[in-house]
Amino acid sequence: MRYVFLSLLCVAAFGQDISGERIRVHTKFLSSDLLEGRGVGARGGDLATEYIATQLALVGARPAGDKGTWFQRVPLVGSETKPSSQLSATVKGQPVAFQWAAEFTGVTLRQKPEVEFDGEAVFVGHGITAPEFHHEDYKDIDVKGKVVLLFTNEPPSTDAKFFGGPALTYYGRWTYKYEEAIRHGAAAVLILHTTPTAGYGWDVVRSSWGKEDPQVRLAAGQPALALAGWLTAKAAESVLGPLGYSVDELLKKADSPDFRAFPLNARFKGRISSTIREIDTRNVVGVMAGSDPQARDQAIVFSAHWDHLGIGDPVNGDRIYNGAVDNATGCAMLLELARAWGALSPKPRRTAIFVSVTAEEGGLRGSEYYGQHPTFPAGRIAANLNFDGFEPIGRTKDISVAGAERTTMWPTVQAIAKRLNFQIKADPHPEQGHYFRSDHFSMARVGIPAFSINQGDEVWGKPASYGEQRFQEYNEKHYHQPSDEYQDDWDFSGLEQIARFGLALGMEIANQAKLPDWAPGDSFKRQ
User: Fold this and answer.
1) 505 and 385 in contact (C-beta within 8 Å)?
2) For residues 489 and 7, what is the distance between their CA atoms, to the nearest angstrom?
3) For the segment 159-212, what is each residue's pLDDT rounded down to a tens digit?
C-alpha cells in the first residue's frame, strides 16, 4: 500500500509537469530537414540517435547499451532494389512485362546483388496455415520453387473464435505471408495489392518498398525469397484476365471457407538487381534504477522507434521523408517521459528503461533485436509501453490501448484512464492489425506484456467526425510521404495528455507487488 500511495503522490506532484511544448520542441528537431528523414544506417539516423542519447543523459538516465555506451548495435544487411530490376509473366504463350514502382515493387531476401527466378504461378488465397482455426491455404499444393500469388489480410470474420473476428491477427500481416511462403519452399511471392486488404494505397507500398530494406543477416544455407514483392491490381488483371479471372473474383475465392489453392496457367520470371551493404545502426538505451533493492532488478520498458524513410524518390520536389508524426512524436514523448521520471523522488520500485529503436519501418528489426537481447532478461521485464505515431490535433476524450485487455494490467489501465478522465476506445481500425505493426509486438513475442498507447479520435471542441477525418487524411495523403512534416499550428495538448497517462500507468506497474502477465490462455503468456 505504501508504494500505491507514493504513486498517487508522485502523479499529483509531477504529472502536471509533463509539457506539450517540450514535446513540440523535440518533435520539431527530430523531423527537421537537417536529420534527412532519419534513415537507417545514414547520417540523419546517426544524428537522431546522438540527440536522443544526449537528451536522456541530461535528464539523469544512465547508458545501458553495449560496453557502457548509450547504443546497442543492431547488425543488419541493407538490400535496396534497383529500378533496372525486371518482372514479367507469360500467359498463354504471350509475354507481359511490368514496370518497376508503377506496377510492381519489392525486395530480394537472398541478400545478393543479382537474383533470378522463373517459376509456375500458384494462387494460395491469403497464404495462411492456421491449424487452430482449421484453415490451411497451402493444403494439397506444392509450391516449392514456384511463384506464389496471394492477398494480404485474412478471411473476413465476425466470430471471435475464427481469426479473432473483425480484428486482424498476425496471420493477416504481409510479414507473415512471406515467412509462411518460405516455410513452404516458394521461390518468390507477389502480394496482389488492393487498398482494402492492405489498409493503405499503392503510394504507401511504393514508397515503403522502393527503399533500402534492413534485414537480419541470413545464416548459411538459410532459405529466402528471391522476391518478396507486391503487384498492383491493375497489373494483376493483365495476367488474370486472359485466364478468365479477375482480382475481385480471386479475393472472393480466397475469402471462401472452402478455398483450395490452385495453379494458374502462367509463369513469372524476374531478375532482381540490388545494392547490398552492411548496415551500421543502433538502438538507444537509457536506464533509471528503481528505489527498491528487492525489485530494481526488474524493469518497465518505455519504447518508441526513431527511424523513418530517409531520403527517397521526390514527391512534388521534396525528397526528405521527415516522419514528423511517424515517429518524431513518439520519440519526443519518450524523452518527456524520461525527463518526468528522472524528476520523481523517490523513484518507483522497479527500474525504468527507455529504448528508442531502429528499423521499425523495415519490419520491427530494432525492437526484434532488443527483445532477443534485452537489458534485463525478458522474464524480469514487467511490461513494455510503446509510443508510435501521434498527430497533434488537440486533447481527446478517449484513448486507445489495444492489447492491454489481453494482460493482467487491464484493471490498472482502466482505473488510470478513469482517473485521468479518458474513455477507453476500442481500436477504431481493428481490420488494419495495428497491434502487429509496431514495436511492442516484438516484446510480446518473447513473453513481455506489451502494447502501444495511442490517441483516440473524439477531440474536445470538435465535431464527432473530426478525429476520424484527420486520420483518414493523414493515412491517404501523408503516411510514409515527404509531406509528413512538422507544422507550427499543431496542438500538442493531446500528446501532453497521453504522456501523463503513460507516466501514471508506468509508475503503477513499476510499483505493483507482482509482475504483470498475459491473461490465462493468451498465446503470448510467459513460459
Assistant:
1) yes
2) 34
3) 877 887 777 888 999 999 999 999 999 999 999 999 999 988 999 899 888 888
